[in-house]
Amino acid sequence: QVQLVESGGGLVQPGGSLRLSCAASGSIFSTYTMRWYRQAPGKERELVATITPASSTNYADSVKGRFTISRDNAKNTVYLQMNSLKPEDTAVYYCNAMNPIGPRYYWGQGTQVTVSS
């Protein structure tokens, strides 16, 4: 069983920045594909960013050029650096891990990001 714990959310003004972190338990973190999703009120959960074990990345069109996903395998942690935040980025952000054996998927509890003046 893998446990994911997100942190770093909060209230920020439009144009500001936040960095989300997701710490994972387990010794084979380096083999997981990690993803950040978000869910705004009344909307479906959407994929924001992906990073593979080889550190290849992919982003939703809505965040390209503003968000950066990265990973530190020594710390079992994945990050989401969010710059130039907009009110429409307001959502609960969730970390997701995919163990390729199975595959199996794990979710964190989510962290709230609110972009407002």
Tags for this entry?
single chain, 117 residues, seven-stranded mixed sheet
Write the layout of secondary structure elements.
Blueprint lengths: L3 E4 L2 E3 L5 E7 L8 E7 L6 E6 L5 E3 L7 E6 L4 E6 L8 E9 L4 E4 L3 E5 L2
Parallel strand pairs: 2-11
Antiparallel strand pairs: 1-3, 3-8, 4-5, 4-9, 5-6, 7-8, 9-10, 9-11
Report the sheet with the most strands, covering strand number, pairing sense and barrel closure.
7 strands, mixed
Q: Cα-atom Rg, whole angstroms?
A: 14 Å
Shape, per Cα inertia axes = globular
Helix share, percent: under 10%
- How many helices in DSSP terms? 0
Q: Kindly, what is the distance between the CA atoms of the first and last residues, rounded to a whole number of angstroms?
A: 40 Å
Please provide the count of β strands.
Answer: 11
Strand content: over 45%
Estimated structural class: mainly beta
Oligomer: single chain
Poorly predicted runs are none
Give the topology string: H per helix, E per strand: EEEEEEEEEEE
Account of the protein in words:
The mean pLDDT is 96. With 117 residues, the protein is mainly beta. Helix content is 0%, strand content 51%. The protein is built from no helices and 11 strands.
